[in-house]
């Protein structure tokens, strides 16, 4: 389906005072019906009109004010969660000034009081999102929303917070966004900005353009059936419905005039005439282009790989189908990748048996090192997951058209009702081969620090790119992480608007297995030693990855907020030496 912008739908947002005047400007008047030609058939869409709701935060009954502490209760650099009776706020004292913002990270609800405060921003202890303490604005990802900001006043040595009850309850604020002007004037086969791919990079690019006041047409297209969703949940929380993991509701796209073309695949890009050609022959002209196509999972190359019940998990439908078929049955997972291990952990309680086949002798060895890999492997074995290491699949056998057995090169035969393949991925850039856009030998799109390709007006972001990582002396790297895709999308949008902004974020990722999380920050590729503090057997540790004398990455389990602390140090451009952590 196509999501077509409606003229006025209101989403309630908590707006800082200075932005209220912008909010009250009406964007556009009536628009005529639109006709889209898809596969040669005309479809009619009417743009609905909705009355403008009055701003909910002018309602004085919605406001609450409370004395929360004495001025001397907080030292500089301290944070405290305070209760206002109908909700909590995070009170912060830095450089002698008090600030108050929402107390929960809008991403997954982490308590920010347990995070890291540094130079005017607070970093989430779980997944590393950063928020400005003066404005509440999100400055690093993951997540899309900012924190609500509350008024602080000092009277007779007491600290008072004044806040909207609704903001205290929602604990999030959607930044003010522009809308598209005079949508009815558009030629439907042309757009100002075309975004290929509707993951985190594509969505953050579209939202950033609107936040920066861009009021021209934005079209996103995706091969997926769904609007942008929280892809990491496909392997971490497998039976989620698409609506539960949607990053934004359908109304959001209507409100802010972000058009999404679902089940539409771009087959080629003509950079000279600035046209994207779709698989079904539909053509769309663009002015600026973002390529954020992500990657395509690798498949097995053995006999039987096309069989029913063999899955690469790409969509919410794949994930829920696997859970259904695996319940009380035998599951074989090929590849101890993040996806493979998360799926194994999720299915361990539900399936009759879970077997994991991997070429290396320890899972995560290249990423987390051998000792951490072994500790993780032991945790899995304690949860009934059986490993078959240093071997691969030679054949998949069927019975009546359905998977029955997985044969390993070692000769071992495993019973299998379902097989999940997690053996890595390749960038989804095949359609660009003849385009003139610079692609490296592995298929990654090469971009600079502003996410620009070698072609003016063409940007790329997310898992399909290599970009210069400031943290590693601008070495060109591929970082296929959820947080990084968000930041790429933001930087691309700012540079479409000629801001000249360069990327300098610290990579941050997490994996969740058996109710435990490993957090990781930095870029440890090529590390030559690991310094471990804590107890690996108890799964309470921090691992510092070093290259020569320098800490290049950190991982931890049950040791918050150490990874966020290290991320802040690295983000400030400071070097951590090996001797500092030994």
What can be said about this structure in brief?
The chain has 582 residues and is of the alpha+beta class. The protein is built from twelve helices and 38 strands.
What general outline do the C-alpha atoms trace?
globular
CATH topology of the largest domain: FAD/NAD(P)-binding domain
Distance between the termini: 56 Å
**What's the total count of β strands?**
38
CATH homology superfamily of the largest domain: FAD/NAD(P)-binding domain
- Structural class by SSE content: alpha+beta
CATH class descriptor name of the largest domain: Alpha Beta
**Number of helices, counting only DSSP H or I runs of 4 residues or more:** 12
Q: Any idea how many domains? A: 4
The fraction of residues assigned to DSSP E strands is 25-35%
Q: What integer value in Å does the Rg equal? A: 25 Å
Helix content: 10-25%
pLDDT < 50 runs, ≥5 residues: 1-58
């Amino acid at each position: 389906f196509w999501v077509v912008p409606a003229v006025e739908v209101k989403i309630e947002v908590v707006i800082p005072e200075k932005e209220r005047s912008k909010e009250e400007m009406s964007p556009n008047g009536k628009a005529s019906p639109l006709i889209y030609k898809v596969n040669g058939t005309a479809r009619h869409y009417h743009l609905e009109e909705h009355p403008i709701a009055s701003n909910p935060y002018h309602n004085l009954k919605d406001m609450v004010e409370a004395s929360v502490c004495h001025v001397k209760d907080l030292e500089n650099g301290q944070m405290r969660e305070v209760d206002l009776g109908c909700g909590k706020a995070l009170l912060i004292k830095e450089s002698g000034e008090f600030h108050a913002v929402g107390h929960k990270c809008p991403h997954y609800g982490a308590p920010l009081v347990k995070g890291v405060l540094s130079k005017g921003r607070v970093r989430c202890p779980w997944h590393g999102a950063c928020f400005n303490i003066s404005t509440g604005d999100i400055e690093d990802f993951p997540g899309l929303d900012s924190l609500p900001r509350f008024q602080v006043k000092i009277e007779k040595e007491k600290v008072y917070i004044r806040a909207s009850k609704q903001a205290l309850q929602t604990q999030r604020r959607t930044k003010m966004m522009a809308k598209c002007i005079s949508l009815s004037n558009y030629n439907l086969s042309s757009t100002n900005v075309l975004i290929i791919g509707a993951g985190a990079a594509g969505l953050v690019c579209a939202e950033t353009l609107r936040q920066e006041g861009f009021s021209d047409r934005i079209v996103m297209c995706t091969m997926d059936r769904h609007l942008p969703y929280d892809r990491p949940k496909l392997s971490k929380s497998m039976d989620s419905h698409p609506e539960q993991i949607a990053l934004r509701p359908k109304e959001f796209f209507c409100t802010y005039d972000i058009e999404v073309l679902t089940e539409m695949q771009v087959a080629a890009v003509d950079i000279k005439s600035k046209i994207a050609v779709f698989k079904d022959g539909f053509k769309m002209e663009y002015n600026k282009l973002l390529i954020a196509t992500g990657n395509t999972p690798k498949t097995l190359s053995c006999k039987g790989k096309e069989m029913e019940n063999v899955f690469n998990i790409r969509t919410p439908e794949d994930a829920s189908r696997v859970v259904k078929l695996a319940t009380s049955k035998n599951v074989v997972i090929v590849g101890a990748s993040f996806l493979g291990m998360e799926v194994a952990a999720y299915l361990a309680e539900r399936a009759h048996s879970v077997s994991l086949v991997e070429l290396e002798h320890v899972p995560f060895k290249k990423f987390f090192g051998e000792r951490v890999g072994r500790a993780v492997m032991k945790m899995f074995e304690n949860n009934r997951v059986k490993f078959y290491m240093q071997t691969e699949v030679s054949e998949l056998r069927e019975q009546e058209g359905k998977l029955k057995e997985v044969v390993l090169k070692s000769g071992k035969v495993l019973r299998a009702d379902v097989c999940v393949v997690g053996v890595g991925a390749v960038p989804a850039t095949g359609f660009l081969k003849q385009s003139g856009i610079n692609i490296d030998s592995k298929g990654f799109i090469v971009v600079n620090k502003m996410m620009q390709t070698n072609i003016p007006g063409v940007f790329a972001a997310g898992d399909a790119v290599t970009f210069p990582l400031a943290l590693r002396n601008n070495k060109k790297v591929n970082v296929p992480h959820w947080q990084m895709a968000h930041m790429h999308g933001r930087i691309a949008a700012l540079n479409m608007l000629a801001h000249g902004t360069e990327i300098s974020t610290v990579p941050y990722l997490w994996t969740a297995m058996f109710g435990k999380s490993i957090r990781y920050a930095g870029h440890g590729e090529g590390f030559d030693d690991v310094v471990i503090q804590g107890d690996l057997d108890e799964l309470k540790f921090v691992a510092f990855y070093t290259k020569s004398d320098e800490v290049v990455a950190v991982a931890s389990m049950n040791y918050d907020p150490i990874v966020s602390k290290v991320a802040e140090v690295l983000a400030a451009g400071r070097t951590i030496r090996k001797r500092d952590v030994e």
